[in-house]
């Protein structure tokens, strides 16, 4: 059996006329077509015809799929050092996030998150759609049984002047409109459905990874806001004490009204910041509840939370070559499956130019009486092959090919864009891994220095050497440095969570 060469034989098939279609019919699958054309002369049993029909399928007009070249550099940028100690494939999230409370929250999210349930249900939907489409490649056999009774009144029939009372009983197996898939139209649709199912499955895995990272990031943000709120509350208490001290000094005539107003302003600013952080903390807690799928406060036996500094998340993951990393990401795999589906749809659209051959028939027994259904000589069969050749549809078929080809171009661009975005994400996170560590070390050193400065200024103020402006300035600088340290620490931990997702880290029970 000859195969269809899409580059040479198809040429400009969207403008095929009837003679060209006949030429294609002779050049492709000619042996199978000759057998089909002579089916009306066969007098074999019904099941032999069904087996022959299945055997004749197999030609395809789908373009050969070739994975597009990776549109990114072959190595990570110099600023993104790919060094590390652990392979992400060997590190599940239970070991990557050592905080027991965070582990419990992630596990609850993977079980209860509604968006994940939707994504999982879409996998089942896509799998079922693929099963429906794949079933079209096989004959559908139905068991039928029926009785047909009629009464023709006297004088109404041209064959008899008397009334005619007739009835017939039938029992058999029927085949209804089974298409001989010479040109691979049904097979292409089945391949597209399969690729759609695999794309949905990969998209669910990508969402699962994102959910793990989102829960970790929401949890870390909540910890940061709590620690910053606690720091702000302590600062407000300290500034309140300094405000009271300044008020007493003013009453004694040692300090002026300006000194008191400055101390009062610093105290009120701390109260405002505390209220702001408490508002953000409530919003972060609500977001975490949404991701987890249930109120965290109502979860039983939840371990105590660790501080940001005790999280123990170490982003020491090895990043191989871009091609090795990016092509294993589930979002890239999903984009490629969508491209494969678009490519298969081109084959289905091209095959619509060519004739469709369908088979309808039945085999069984028939009798005028119910008791005679299985008597000798009651066998009955029917066979109705049909050939449909498109002649004129006002350009509908050719436009469908244009649509399929345009969608493939879109799918290629989306696939390449997904790879480029993934490359940028990994490169940014690899660069951030080292730079955030340097920033945190410097920020911590600054916080320590400002803390020591505040102690010295307060001691000098108590001794009457420093003025209140120095104290207020030292308080502000120390507060800002400590707040900045908490922010940078949370950013570093969140970047570590994103890096795990970007390198396509998997959980131990991903496939369950």
C-alpha end-to-end distance: 43 Å
Tell me the overall shape.
elongated
Rg is 38 Å
Low-confidence stretches: 1-57
Major β-sheet annotation: 4 strands, antiparallel
Assign the CATH architecture of the largest domain: Up-down Bundle
**Count of runs of 4 or more consecutive helical residues:** 13
CATH level-3 fold name of the largest domain: Outer membrane efflux proteins (OEP)
Number of strands: 6
SSE string, helices as H and strands as E: HHHHEHHHEEHHEHHEEHH
Structural class: alpha+beta
Q: How is the largest sheet built, in terms of strand order?
A: 2-3-5-6
Level of helix content? 55-70%
CATH superfamily of the largest domain: Outer membrane efflux proteins (OEP)
Mean pLDDT across the residues is: 83
Q: Which class of the largest domain in CATH terms? A: Mainly Alpha
| Number of discrete domains | 2
> What fraction of the residues are assigned to beta strands by DSSP?
5-15%
């Amino acid at each position: 059996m000859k195969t269809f060469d899409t580059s040479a034989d198809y040429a400009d098939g969207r403008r095929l006329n009837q003679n060209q279609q006949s030429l294609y019919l002779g050049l492709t699958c000619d042996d199978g077509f000759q057998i089909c054309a002579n089916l009306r002369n066969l007098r074999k049993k019904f099941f032999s015809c069904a087996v022959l029909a299945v055997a004749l399928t197999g030609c395809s007009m789908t373009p050969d799929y070739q994975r597009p070249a990776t549109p990114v550099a072959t190595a990570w940028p110099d600023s993104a050092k790919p060094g590390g100690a652990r392979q992400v494939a060997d590190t599940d999230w239970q070991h990557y996030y050592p905080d027991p409370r965070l582990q419990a929250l992630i596990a609850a999210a993977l079980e209860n998150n509604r968006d994940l349930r939707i994504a999982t249900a879409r996998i089942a939907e896509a799998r079922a759609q693929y099963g429906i489409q794949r079933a079209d490649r096989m004959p559908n056999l139905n068991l039928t049984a029926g009785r047909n009774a009629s009464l023709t009144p006297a004088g109404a029939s041209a064959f008899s002047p008397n009334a005619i009372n007739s009835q017939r009983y039938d029992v058999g197996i029927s085949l209804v409109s089974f298409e001989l898939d010479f040109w691979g139209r049904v097979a292409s649709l089945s391949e597209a459905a399969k690729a759609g199912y695999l794309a949905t499955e990969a998209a669910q895995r990508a969402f699962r990874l994102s959910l793990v990272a989102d829960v970790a990031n929401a949890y870390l943000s909540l910890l940061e806001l709590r620690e910053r709120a606690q720091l702000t509350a302590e600062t407000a208490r300290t500034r309140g004490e300094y405000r009271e001290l300044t008020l007493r000094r003013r009453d004694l005539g040692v300090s002026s009204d300006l000194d008191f107003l400055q101390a009062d302003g610093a105290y009120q600013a701390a109260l405002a910041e505390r209220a702001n952080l408490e508002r953000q903390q409530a919003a972060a807690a609500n977001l975490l509840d949404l991701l987890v799928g249930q109120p965290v406060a109502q979860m039983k036996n939840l371990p105590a939370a660790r501080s940001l500094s005790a999280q123990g998340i170490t982003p020491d993951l090895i990043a191989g070559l871009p091609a090795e990393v990016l092509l294993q990401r589930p979002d890239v795999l999903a984009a490629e499956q969508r491209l494969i589906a678009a490519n298969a749809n081109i084959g289905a659209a091209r095959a619509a130019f060519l004739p469709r051959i369908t088979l309808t028939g039945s085999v069984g027994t028939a009798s005028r009486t119910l008791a005679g259904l299985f008597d000798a000589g009651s066998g009955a069969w029917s066979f109705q092959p049909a050939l449909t050749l498109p002649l004129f549809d006002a350009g509908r078929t050719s436009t469908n090919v244009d649509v399929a080809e345009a969608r493939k171009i879109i799918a290629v661009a989306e696939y390449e864009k997904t790879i480029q975005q993934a490359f940028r994400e990994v490169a940014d996170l690899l660069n951030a891994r080292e730079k955030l560590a340097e920033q945190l070390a410097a920020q911590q050193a600054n916080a320590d220095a400002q803390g020591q400065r505040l102690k010295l200024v307060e001691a000098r103020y108590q001794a009457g050497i420093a003025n209140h402006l120095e104290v207020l300035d030292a308080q502000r600088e120390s507060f800002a440095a400590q707040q900045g340290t908490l922010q940078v620490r949370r950013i570093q931990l969140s970047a570590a969570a994103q890096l795990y997702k970007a390198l396509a880290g998997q959980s131990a029970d991903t496939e369950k």
